[in-house]
Amino acid sequence: MTTISIEHTSRWFGNVVAVNDVSMTISPGVTGLLGPNGAGKSTLINMMGGFLAPSTGSVTLDGQPIWRNESVYRQIGVVPEREAMYDFLTGREFVVANSELQGLGAREAQEALATVEMEYAQDRKIATYSKGMRQRVKMASALVHNPSVLLLDEPFNGMDPRQRMQLMDLLRHMGATGRTVLFSSHILEEVEQLASHIEVIVAGRHAASGDFRKIRRLMTDRPHRYLVRSSDDRVLAAALIADPSTAGIEVDLAEGALHIQAIDFGRFTELLPRVARENSIRLLTVSPSDESLESVFSYLVTA
Amino acid sequence: MYNPTVARLTYRAVLGRRRAAILFILPALLLLIATSVRIFVGPDDQIAADLLGGFAIAAMVPLIGVIAGTGAIAPEIDDGSIVYLLAKPVKRSTIIFTKLIVAIAVTMAFSAIPTLIAGFILNGNGQQVAIAYTVAALVASIAYSALFLLLGTVSRHAVVIGLIYALVWEALFGSLVPGARTLSVQQWSLALAEKIATEGLIGSDVGLPLAVSLLLGVTVVATWYAGQKLRVLKLAGEE
């Protein structure tokens, strides 16, 4: 059982604070590191992977510091976000080299290539690979020594749905067999499908932690804002405000639209079409006006 | 200390890039000039010494050193692919030492061997000129490789700085300005050549004991420091 502990860790680059006093423990199983782009996920993963020193605090693997400690790589496998690989090698040569650097041989490399289903293209140059194929070969290079910890930075970027499903199955299996798997993503659905445990990071801060149901509840229970255009805005507004799922409505004459703040997401989504039908109002536009992930995250930070 | 896998990757990285064309062009140019001189002028010890000193040692060896020394590590640091070497239980000093060996081997192969052949073409190793300059090329290859490998770990502009050093400092100042000569790998290596060739044919501004100490010192310190830099190399994220 291998655990990564991050204790009161900060990391700054000049005047910019990328990670701000974060404490978390990554235990066996699959953990999703969720946050918008630029939140500090990569910085955190780089510190867990030993590629960046924490400015303050500590990042340890079963009590051993990770920074400047090459021996941790017997236990850690890393799948970086960066595209750059040894493009002049074939997939097989690349994975064999990674295997040799772990003190292993061609057999282990072949097994890793089979695990990621890349045997069919293993003798092609990496330069000719698609993004998804690169991702899978990177994955094979990280799995070659059967690590107890796997760190993946945005692993699903550029993968098609089938490859994504396959990688998810693989990671799920690794988590189920007691390995510590941590992956970062800025897509909630991705994390939700795979991770039993989620760590949310926003603007360098640790915003929330828990299972996906808890995170999902926090996200759906927050006030939602909608922009609605209809054939009769005032009648619709009057009918909606009578219901407790709606906290406020603004009639925007200039825009010719309603700005609605709903506090009960589930009930409101059921109420709106019903009220429209009952009052013979045509709904022309219904669009969430604050659905960007950043707004969800900023809500989480204050929650 | 030496890792064959790191070596294999490094050889392919150094020889596989477009830049590697220079590794072939410069020696070919040297051999072409040497052959022409031999055909049109005939064997002449002074011309042989001037050509090998002025072109092979002053320009070709440092330029090939830049390509091999920086090429052994800088592109991997630039594009981040070095992460696949660093995320392994391999000592950083082993990575640097192996890359140094590769850089030295490449620089020697592409500079010392052509120098030897050109020397024999020019005057059939008369006055030991060919051997003397080949020895100079061999020892200079070691020091340049270590220096430019270090440069590759400390600067993102390693090739440009290396080229400026090779062309401006070594080829221009190292040959012309007396003060600069003392701090020139070229002059240190010529101190050895001076002892081998017939007296008066090759000159160096640096005495042999000092030259050998400086060659050794620069190589050892540069290699050690490159290892230290690699230990704390920060791979910046995409953010």
From TrEMBL, chain A:
SMART domains: AAA (SM00382). Keywords: ATP-binding, Nucleotide-binding, Transport. The keyword ATP-binding applies. GO terms for molecular function: ATP binding. It holds the Pfam family ABC_tran. Gene3D superfamilies: P-loop containing nucleotide triphosphate hydrolases. CDD domains: ABC_DR_subfamily_A (cd03230). Residues 4-228 form the ABC transporter domain. Belongs to the ABC transporter superfamily. This is ABC transporter ATP-binding protein. It comes from Streptomyces albipurpureus. The lineage of its organism: Bacteria, Bacillati, Actinomycetota, Actinomycetes, Kitasatosporales.
Automatic annotation (TrEMBL), chain B:
The chain crosses the membrane at residues 21-41, 53-74, 95-122, 128-151, 158-180, 206-226. The keyword NADP does not apply. Pfam families: ABC2_membrane_2. The keyword Ion transport does not apply. Keywords: Membrane, Transmembrane, Transmembrane helix. This is ABC transporter permease. It comes from Streptomyces albipurpureus.
